[in-house]
Amino acid sequence: MPRKNIIIIIGVVLFCFLVVVVLYAVSDPPFSYRQDFTRIHKLDAIKQLGALDLQSSSYYIAGATQNQIFFGNEKDSLELLVTDMSLGRLRHLRLSIVDESRVSLKNSRIEVDSPYFYIKAGDLPGIFKGNLQQLQAKRILEHTPYFRSAVSLSKKTFALLAMGGEAGSKEAQNILTTVSSDTLHKKNAFIPRGQVDSYISAMGMLRYSKGSSRLIYTYFYRNRYIVMDTSMNLLYEGNTLDTISRAQIKPVEVKKNFFTLASTPAIVNNNSQVYRNRLFIHSNLMANNETREVFDKVSVIDVYDIVQDRYLFSFYLPDYNSTKIILFKICGNKIVALYDHHVLTYALNDDSYEKDT
Amino acid sequence: MRKKEIIIEIIIFLHVLLFLYAAGSKLTVYDTFIAQMGKSPLLTGFTHTLAWLVPSVEIIIAIMLIIPRFRLVGLYAAFGLMVLFTFYIISILTISKELPCSCGGVLSMLGWREHLVFNIGFVLLGLTGIILMHKKREEQREFVAA
């Protein structure tokens, strides 16, 4: 082939390389996993206790006590799986709803607060309650609005995360509210502030700590969490370790007043759980004193004190069979972690527990 | 000479097939295509332009490959486009590791790697086609000169 054409081919390749380099330079600089903050690593924080294969990836953790762990099934709304804390004695229980046999429980979630269980169906909407002896649930709280998630505060009161406005519209909002069978007309509401947009940037997880009577809302896409009392009064807003204070979101208008996202937002907080005065956050971001090699093989949990408002320490939950943790729950000094279809239990060594109440 | 011609025909045919299929599939799911490109950290700001530009270029190249006069130029262009796509995939694979979002797009990591192999295959195919077409031209010139 003549030399002239070889030069043309090389020229084409170089040109293409240049195009990609220019694209990189011109595009919004993507920020990286590694942020400029430092973690305190507690290396002896956990010890693995047991492992169990649940055979299906559709289970979620419905509750945990000192002695038992409960799992719900995303594909079967009335199935309740129970094991001991030692992961033995696996039993499949079947729940039923009294007086309403044809109600659709798609997307519902079971919450176990021994000796009671609740079936929370935000799409119906409806909340049903039963006890673990008879396994029959009856509807409670006649006038709940549609909700995305709910947590029980007491036997008669629930905190809800609902959506206001139409999905995808500029008016969409997250609304935190409480519903009680005593007070049908009085509703406390808290609306997490948006950044960039009013809804997606303010999305988060609602959790309740019985031990400290605190409601916690952890944002997905920014480094903050809100601590409230059971009447939704704001106690304080806490900062997580990392530095992403603004949700990285690019909304794009599809039609008048409606928009979608131009790219997936960067997740700051994957999951959060509370127990007594502790907030455990499964963070998605790497600290400046961590390495990629380690970070890729573990899930990092940052622990905060939500009464004293301070960061305590972080620990790693190692991947199991190359999968990261999907869900976890803390009960006492035990951690129940769900990896795809495996559940693992760990002992949590948090000596500071003893010092404060 | 016969063998070369057959191989060139096959290479051209595969390219036309690929480009028309690629252009067609992008145009039939236009909104999804824009949304997918929107997820790319490299293409910010260009999504709407690329949405019509990429399929158009693919169709133009396919037409060039069909018309005998423009075949060689078309092969160069096809080669260039595949090289460009290949470099793009390599950059996405490189920077995606650093991003805490699923910006790599809808395809999983495994899907991206297979895509890369497929692209490199076509780059080599295009290069082969270019070389063979030049050889054929040289032979034709010798034939005429003789």
List the topology elements.
The complex is a heterodimer of chains A (357) and B (146).
Chain A: H1 3-26, E1 46-53, E2 59-64, E3 68-73, E4 76-84, E5 91-94, E6 96-97, E7 109-113, E8 116-121, E9 126-131, E10 136-140, E11 149-152, E12 157-164, E13 173-180, E14 189-190, E15 204-209, E16 214-219, E17 224-228, E18 234-239, E19 251-255, E20 258-261, E21 269-275, E22 278-283, H2 292-295, E23 298-305, E24 310-318, E25 327-331, E26 334-339, E27 342-348, H3 352-355
Parallel strand pairs in A: 6-10
Antiparallel strand pairs in A: 1-27, 2-3, 3-4, 4-5, 7-8, 8-9, 9-10, 11-12, 12-13, 13-14, 15-16, 16-17, 17-18, 19-20, 21-22, 22-23, 23-24, 25-26, 26-27
Chain B: H1 2-28, H2 30-38, H3 47-66, H4 71-96, H5 109-145
Helix pairs in contact in B: 1-3, 1-5, 3-4, 4-5
Order of helices and strands of chain B: HHHHH
Q: How would you name the CATH homologous superfamily of chain A?
A: TolB, C-terminal domain
CATH architecture of chain A: 6 Propeller
Structural category of chain B is mainly alpha
Q: Which chain pair has the greatest contact?
A: A-B, 36 and 31 residues
As a percent range, the share of strand residues of chain B is under 5%
> Any low-confidence stretches of chain B, pLDDT <50, length ≥5?
102-109
Distance between the termini of chain B: 16 Å
Notes on the structure:
The complex is a heterodimer of chains A (357) and B (146). Chain A is built from 3 helices and 27 strands. Chain A has a 5-stranded mixed sheet with strand order 6-10-9-8-7, with no helix packed on it. In chain A, strands 1-27-26-25 form a 4-stranded antiparallel sheet, with no helix packed on it. A 4-stranded antiparallel sheet of chain A has the order 2-3-4-5, with no helix packed on it. Chain A starts with a helix and ends with a helix. The model of chain A has no long low-confidence stretch (mean pLDDT 85). Chain A is mainly β and 357 residues long. Chain A has a single domain, classed as TolB, C-terminal domain (Neuraminidase, 6 Propeller). By secondary structure, chain B is an all-alpha fold. Chain B has one domain. In chain B, helix 1 (2-28) packs antiparallel against helix 5, helix 3 (47-66) runs antiparallel to helix 4 (71-96) and helix 4 runs antiparallel to helix 5. The longest helix of chain B is centred in the last third of the chain and has 37 residues, at 109-145. Chain B starts with a helix and ends with a helix. Chain A binds chain B through residues 1-2, 5, 8-9, 12-13, 15-17, 19-20, 23-24, 26-28, 30-34, 248, 250, 252, 260-268, 284-285, and chain B through 35, 38-47, 76, 79-80, 83-84, 87-88, 91, 95, 98-103, 127, 130-131, 134-135.
